[in-house]
Amino acid sequence: MTRPSPNPSSRFDGSQSYVATDDLKLAVNAAIAKIVANGKMPGLWNKWFLSPIPPKNIVVGLELSPATKNAWANLNDKPAEDYNKK
Questions:
Q1: Which residues contact 59 (CB under 8 A, 6 or more apart)?
Q2: Which of 19, 33, 50, 73 lies 20 to 30 Å (CA to CA) from residue 40?
Q3: Which domain holds residue 69?
């Protein structure tokens, strides 16, 4: 696997894992917020989880859950573990 050259806003930690830096995190969070705000997120969900995926036209069949809808309504960067706390 070829790794892209490191630049000031990204780096590799020596494993196969990519370490997200603040610039990358901000860019991804902004892109997700924009998709949610313009109302396109449900359409993307339907495309990837409820519609046939070529070339074999397999349907994942993963319905949109209330928890996912809530996550879109309340965007944050908390890890999944924070939601499992009792």
A1: 50, 51, 52, 53
A2: 19
A3: 13-84
Is residue 5 domain-resident? no
HSE (side-chain half, CA atoms, 13 Å) at 72: 17
pTM above 0.85, yes or no: no
Give the C-alpha separation, 16 to 18, whole Å. 7
Contacts of 44 (CB under 8 A, 6+ apart): 35
Q: What pLDDT band is residue 2 in, cutting at 50, 70 and 90?
A: very low
Return the CATH number at 57. Answer: 3.40.190.10
Q: Is residue 3 part of a domain?
A: no
CA 43 to chain centre: 15
- Cis peptide bond N-terminal to 55, omega within 30: yes
CA 81 to chain centre: 16
- Of residues 55 and 4, the one with the higher pLDDT is 55
